[in-house]
Amino acid sequence: MSIILGIDVGGSTTKIVGLQGETLLGVKQVRAKDQVTALFGAIGNFLHDHTLELGDISGIVLTGVGSSFIFSERIYGIETRKVNEFEAIGRGALLLSGLDEALVISMGTGTAYVMATKDRITRIGGSGVGGGSVLGLASCMLGKDDVEAILALAENGRLENVDLKVSDIIGCEIPSLPSDLTAANFGKLKSTASESDVALGIINMVFETAGMLAVFALRNDAVKDVVVTGTLATFPQAKDVFAQFSTHTGLNFIIPENAVYATALGAAAG
Fold first, then answer.
1. How many CB atoms lie within 10 A of CB 142?
2. Given strand 57-63, what is the order of strands in its sheet?
3. Contact criterion met (CB below 8 Å) for 24 and 265
4. 7 with 39: CB under 8 angstroms?
5. Containing domain of residue 18, as a range?
6. How far apart are alpha carbons 96 and 259 in whole angstroms?
7. Which of 30, 35, 154, 214 would be a feasible disulfide site paired with 199, CB 3.0-4.6 Å?
8. Does 93 fall in a domain?
9. Where are the alpha helices (DSSP H) in the chain?
């Protein structure tokens, strides 16, 4: 058995995938206090979950910011190498989406933008608005610094108590400016707004920022597909926000299955 492990060693979580030829054997996500512990924990958990031995693994490919803490060229005696994170992001997104070209949004602690084609992968920029923003703002405004707690609050939130919409400030229809678009995130925050309203407003602001930057990036480009990957792609609000962008911008926003593992998959396939 010849299996390649692709491991995305992130700042807060480590993702691992197993690839046998072109077959994805499985995925796993591990959290730990430091990246080295998370890396070895991810390998051990993956082998256990899939009843594999170290001898079944022919190679390990690392990527992600945390991979800079790993200096060995062999892990558990297995040949180990590193690949550029942005190349892994682009390659993984194309594999998961089945596309030949796309703009890729990778939403983790921050947000990276990568233009990916079969022949070339290029980082075109990034934003400091991402998962770190959700955690930081929620900690400051709600006293919550746990993702699950923030998502649970947001389930019952109402954006009309937080965000100012175009319809709130324009009394007539403008063809190029749909009335349901956000005019100002938190521009209508009421004193009666609940913690759930605020939690949803924070998450919505992060996704709307990511979406608009993608729109600007493709303003003069023939590429119209946008693949959303990373940890935040699993948030339930992502689907609705990016669906709205697809409706209003003419771009096709896609959240593929296993989007959170795109970078790890791209590493394994590289």
1. 16
2. 23-31, 13-20, 3-9, 57-63, 78-82, 74-75
3. yes
4. yes
5. 3-82
6. 7
7. 154
8. no
9. 35-49, 85-97, 131-142, 147-154, 166-169, 195-217, 236-249, 262-269
Nearest-angstrom CA–CA distance, 158 and 149? 17
In which residue are the tokens 């998502």 written?
151
> What does the pLDDT profile of the chain (270 residues) look like in tens digits?
689 999 999 877 899 999 999 899 999 999 877 888 889 999 999 999 999 999 999 999 999 988 988 888 899 999 999 999 999 999 999 999 999 999 999 999 999 999 999 999 999 999 999 999 999 999 999 999 999 999 999 999 999 999 999 888 886 666 667 788 899 999 999 889 999 999 999 999 999 999 999 999 999 999 999 999 999 999 999 999 999 999 999 999 999 999 999 999 999 998
Residues 155 and 46 both lie in one domain: no
267 domain-assigned: no
* Domain containing residue 32: CATH number: 3.30.420.40
CA distance 255 to 111: 15
The count of domains in the chain is 2
Residue 184 maps to a domain: yes
| 44 & 156 share domain | no
The answer to whether residues 164 and 237 belong to one domain is yes
The model's pLDDT over 173-197, given as tens digits with 9 standing for 90+, comes to: 666 677 888 999 999 998 899 999 9
> Of 82, 116, 144, which marks where a domain is finished?
82
For strands 57-63 and 23-31, give the pairing. unpaired
Asked, for residue 12, whether it belongs to a domain, the answer is yes
Distance, CA of 127 to CA of 84 (rounded, Å) = 19
